[in-house]
Write a structure and sequence with these properties.
Strand content: 25-35%
Helix content: 25-40%
CATH architecture of one domain: 3-Layer(bba) Sandwich
Distance between the termini: 86 Å
Number of strands: 18
Radius of gyration: 22 Å
Largest sheet: 8 strands, mixed
Oligomer: single chain
Structural class: alpha/beta
CATH topology of one domain: FAD/NAD(P)-binding domain
């Protein structure tokens, strides 16, 4: 009888699963603090990631903290405004610190910075299950694919770690395996593609976001990338409605039909697609929003980034907040080790730091009513074009100095009818 082959074992202080912005930010901060960090991902890098690719001010702040802002901006396409475009064609350009860089390039920059800080790298390695002793997670079992990406010659490895951080994004498989998933369905869904059209360079310079009754409960966007390429897509908020039995099911909406409607109702989208060349194909992805859908921790394990719901509901923006929550996870672990803090105290502090962000996410949920009622976008744009006060408030939303929900509450809507200032 052949003896079973022992599973190889790796050891580290912190295992970070997922090398997107949240995981790589977390790994870099931990490595800077002197911890032995193993950063793993199910894909070799660089790799594609479905996203709008827009970088708003909170992302720029995070890049600066991570020391990669110059490298990101050297590769990115800068944009002067977010252009908000209503169903009747009204437009308001909101200035801000903005750029666009496809996630294939962006995520690799942030990952390489983590490795430069001292984190170790293992890929392709897929999270299979936690290793649990008593009630505490003490690592993870990973499935290794061969370098060709096939599982045919895959093996498994056990990684033992004092702490595990899940930064595995919106797909819930790892959350389910780790026993921390509270909602399997996403908060929203999006569909995006890349179109190269040199004739549109200079004509579309801003991050354009479009609302229309044909896109109800969602929105369309066009973001200019470097080299004459444009990220174009549609997003649907609250894509999975709660049924009478408590289950959540997908709304009866076809994202490809929504995309086609976007191109019909918005002339620049129609012109971009008709006169351009597709780079790859349209791809869809789930969104997890509003810091909901997963437990933030269990003994030995923290959840961060979009796995924890770090995407804003109203705008679908998540890169900056993903990095912010990843750095909070690193801060909680590193400071607990320095202070000799208990596991329970560390987890409580991490949860408190993340949940301190929750009021802002809730305000974006309130602002999400614009997607349900696109006429609100018309009203807000019409008023903002005539009021410096409202334009300043919209700039404050972008810079995170003003609450977005206040613009579309009953009181906020009433104030739109007050004398112009």
């Amino acid at each position: 009888m052949t003896a079973p082959v022992a599973t190889p074992t790796e050891r580290c202080d912190v295992l970070v699963v997922g090398a997107g912005p949240a995981g790589s930010a977390c790994a870099q901060m931990l490595a800077r603090a002197g911890l032995d960090v193993l950063l793993v991902d199910q894909h070799e890098f660089p790799r594609d990631k479905v996203c709008g690719d827009g970088l708003i001010p909170d992302a720029h702040h995070a890049f600066a903290r991570l020391g990669v802002l110059h490298e990101v901006m050297a590769a990115a396409q800068r944009a002067p405004h977010v252009a908000c475009i209503g169903p009747r064609g009204g437009r308001i350009d909101v200035p801000g610190t903005l750029a666009v860089l496809p996630r294939r390039q962006l995520d690799d920059i942030v990952r390489r910075a983590a490795l430069a800080a001292g984190a170790r790298w293992l890929a392709p390695a897929r999270y299979e299950a936690p290793i649990v002793e008593g009630d505490r997670v003490v690592g993870a079992r990973l499935k290794l694919a061969d370098r060709g990406g096939s599982d045919a010659a895959a093996g498994v490895i056990d990684v033992r770690a004092a702490h595990t951080v899940l930064a595995t994004g919106a797909v819930p498989a790892a959350l389910i395996a780790a026993g921390v998933c509270e909602r399997r369905t996403p908060s929203g869904v999006a569909l995006r593609g890349y179109v190269k059209n040199d004739a549109m360079v200079g004509r579309i310079r801003d991050l354009e976001v479009v609302w229309h009754k044909r896109l109800r409960k969602g929105y369309g966007w066009i973001f200019p990338c470097p080299d004459g390429v444009f990220n174009i897509g549609v997003g649907l908020a609250h894509s999975h409605g709660k049924q009478a039995d408590g289950r959540r099911t997908m709304q009866d909406v076809n994202l490809r039909e929504l995309f086609a409607a976007f191109c019909e109702v918005y002339a620049p989208a129609r012109e971009l697609v008709a006169g351009g060349a597709w780079i790859g194909e349209l791809k869809g992805a789930p969104l997890r929003c509003s810091l909901e859908g997963a437990q933030l921790s269990r003994p030995g394990l923290l959840v961060t980034g979009e796995a924890a719901g770090s995407t804003y509901a109203f705008t679908g923006e998540g890169i900056g907040k993903a990095m912010e929550t990843g750095m909070l996870a690193a801060q909680a672990i590193a400071e607990a080790r320095q202070r000799g803090e208990s596991e329970a105290a560390m987890r409580a502090r991490y949860q408190a730091m993340v949940m301190a962000l929750k009021p802002r996410f809730d305000l974006y949920e309130r602002a999400n009513r614009v997607n349900d009622h696109p006429w609100l976008a018309d009203l807000l744009i019409w008023r903002a074009r005539r009021s410096r006060r409202i334009r300043r408030r919209m700039e404050g939303v972008l810079e995170e100095t003003h609450n977005p929900g206040n613009l579309v509450t009953a009181r906020g809507i009433l104030r739109l009818f007050l004398p112009i200032r």
